[in-house]
Automatic annotation (TrEMBL):
Keywords: DNA-binding, Repressor, Transcription, Transcription regulation
Protein name: HTH merR-type domain-containing protein
GO MF term list: DNA binding; DNA-binding transcription factor activity
One of the Pfam families matching this protein, by short name: MerR
Cross-referenced InterPro entries: DNA-bd_dom_put_sf, MerR-type_HTH_dom, MerR_fam, Tscrpt_reg_MerR_DNA-bd
Annotated HTH merR-type domain residues: 10-79
Length: 140
């Protein structure tokens, strides 16, 4: 169901936080950064968000979960806001992020192997004779 097909729901910051599993302080932070538009206010001054902000916040959260930086997300949101534009730039950004993730995975595998090597050096003695300490200090 698209945003246009849903009835318009209004959320307080607390309701939006609960609906998106996001802390209220994070929502206000994203609003302050301009990732979320400034919320409408009630006469009492409470923020009111709509389905549009709900969906935008989910977009931000899912993008963060995929490792995109806030600057990257700002760019992705700018692209997503231009509904009739080509998705080539969006695809390119996703492919770039995928390559960065693959690089991090390779780096993590290398770290895993080094930690396994260090762990295998341990003979359970005393720190003074510890091969791990020697290796980490460049003496081993």
């Amino acid at each position: 169901m698209t945003t246009e097909q849903r009835s318009s729901t209004h959320y307080t910051v607390g309701q939006l936080a609960k609906a998106t599993d996001t802390k209220a302080v994070t929502i206000r932070y994203y609003e302050g950064l301009g990732l979320l538009p400034s919320a409408a206010r009630t006469t009492a001054g409470y923020r009111l968000y709509t389905d549009k902000e709900h969906d935008r916040l989910l977009f931000i959260r899912r993008s963060r979960a995929l490792g995109f930086s806030l600057d990257d997300i700002r760019g992705l949101l700018g692209l997503a806001d231009r509904r009739e534009a080509s998705c080539a730039a969006f695809d390119a950004k996703v492919k770039e992020q995928l390559e960065q993730v693959r690089t991090r995975i390779r780096d993590l595998h290398a770290m895993e192997h080094e930690l396994e090597r260090l762990s295998a050096c341990c003979e359970g003695g005393v720190i003074n004779d510890c091969r791990i300490v020697e290796s980490l200090s460049g003496r081993g």
